[in-house]
Amino acid sequence: MPNKFQKFNSLTVEYVQRRNKVHEMCRQYSRSPSKGNLKRLKSLFRKVGEGVFIESGFYCDYGDKISLGDRVYMNINCTMLDGGLITIGDDCLIGSGVQILTINHALSPKERLKKANFASDVTIENNVWLGSGVIVLPGVTIKSGTTIGAGSIVTHNCDNNCLYVGNPARKIKQLD
What we know:
The chain is an alpha/beta fold. It has a single domain (about 10-170), classed as UDP N-Acetylglucosamine Acyltransferase, domain 1, CATH 2.160.10.10. The chain contains three helices and 20 strands. Strand 19 and strand 20 (about 170-175) form a beta hairpin.
């Protein structure tokens, strides 16, 4: 694994118990997206700015590694695998079905049998729009003002104020 990945054992008793608790809170919010359940969900996070709204169907593993800036909007059915830090800046729009992933596994079949995970942080700066179905892979930084087109898979860092689309996501143009 590249140096930016830190070994992460998600099978410890503590991590399994935490995941079970958090998954149940996410299911509860999905069944009943009330203000009270949203408040409980937000209480899991490392940081939550003003005016953050999360639609139902949100799932994460731990919550305490997620930081959300002001006025972040997450549409339905978003997933964050937060073994590493996930930082989302102010005024970001997260489309339906978006996946933000910080976890990876060994490529070697022999190493993979050891069940090791590797975590690498994801950073999404200010005023970023992730279209529906976008997948952001571990270790990626998406710079401010950037739009990622629906269905794209972000495998590498993205520049400021650009449009990226495709699999893997490629820069299409600079935005004003």
